[in-house]
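Worked problem 6 (solution included).
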Amino acid sequence: MPQPGSTYLQVREVLLPIAAMLLVSRAVLLLVGVLTATQLAPPTAAIGHDLLSYLCRFDCGWYLSVVQHGYSTLENTDQPGATNLGFYPVFPLLVRGLSSLLSADPFHSAIVVSNLCFYAALIYIYRYARLLGVDHHAALLCTGLICVLPQSIAFSAAYSESTFLLLLVVAMFHLRRENYLVAGIAAALLSATRANGVFFLVFAVAWLIRSVGLRGLLTPWRAPEKIVPIVLAPMGLLVFWGYCFATTGDAFAGPSSMYHGWGWYFSPPWEALTAMLRSDNVAFFFGLVSLGLLVCSLLLWRQGWYEEFAFCVALIVLMMSGAVIGSLFRYGLVLFPLWIALARALAPRPVLSALTFSTLALLNAMMMSAWTLQNLIAI
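Solution. The predicted structure is:
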C-alpha cells in the first residue's frame, strides 16, 4: 500500500484533481465562448471561429507585439499615446523563449505558457494552504474556486495573469519556508511581470517584523539573509525602467504610455470608490467588487494571517486608486490568500460551499460571454 505523502498519493489526491478542475473549467468556458459567438454575437461582429481565438482578447495583441517585434515607441493609430511599453517583459520573454525552442507560433506558445503557469500556480497554492495549516479538502476547494472565479479565463489567455500568480505564490511560499534567495528571485521576476508585483514588499516587511520584530527590521545586519527578498523584490521593475531609459530616454515610458494611452493615473482611493458607487454604469459593479474583496480580506485577519492581510489590503487599495476602473476583476484574481481563507471558511459547510461555487461559476460564464463579445466589463 502507498504510504501517506508518497508520490502516488500526491499524484492521485493533488495533481490529478487540480488538473481535472483546470481542464474542465477551461472546457466549459470555451464552450460558453462558442455558444456566445454563434448565438449572441451580432452578424457584423469580428469574432474568430478558431477555438483558441477566444483566448485572445483586449491586451493579447499588445503582449504578442512585444514577443514578435520587441518594445517600440510606435503608437497605436486607433489609441493615441498607447505603446507596448506599458506591458512588462517576463511573460513575453517566456513566450518568445518557448516559441524559439519549439519553432511554434507565438500565440500558441503564449497559450501554453499561460496554462502551464496556471497549473503550476494552483499546485503551489495548494501547498501554500497546507503550509498555513489548511486541511487537504479546503486546500483543494481553494484551487477549484480560483478556476471558477469570474474572469478566470485570463489565466488561460495570452495574458500575464497566470505568470504573475505563479511568481507571487512562489515568492510568498519560499519566504515562509525561509528559502530567502528563491523568494527574492521570484519576487524580482514578479515586479518585472507587472509593476504592482513590487507590493510583495508589503508581505515581506510584515513577515520580517513578525519574525524578528521591529528592532530586527531596523538592524538588518544581524540577519542579512532575511532581507534578501526585500532587496531583490524591486530589482525587476528597476531593470525594466533602466531598459526604458536606455532605449527611449524615459525611464518611466511604461507608466507614461499607460497614462496617455489608457488614461491610467492614481487618485485617492476613497474618492475613486465613492465615484464608482455613485455611478449608474459598469463602474458601480467594480466598486462592489472592491468592497467585496475588502470584506474577504477580513477572513485573513480572523485566521491570524496578518502578513497576507497586509499584502491583500495594500493591493486592493491600489486597485481602488486607479482613475480608470477597467480590469478590476482581473486584478483581484491573483489575491490567492483571500481564496484560501474563503475556502477554509466554506469547507465545513457543504451546502454553502456548493452555493458559492455555483454562483461564482455562473458569474464566470457571464463574464466569459462578455469577454467573447469584447464587452468593456470584461477588459
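Discussion: The mean pLDDT is 87.
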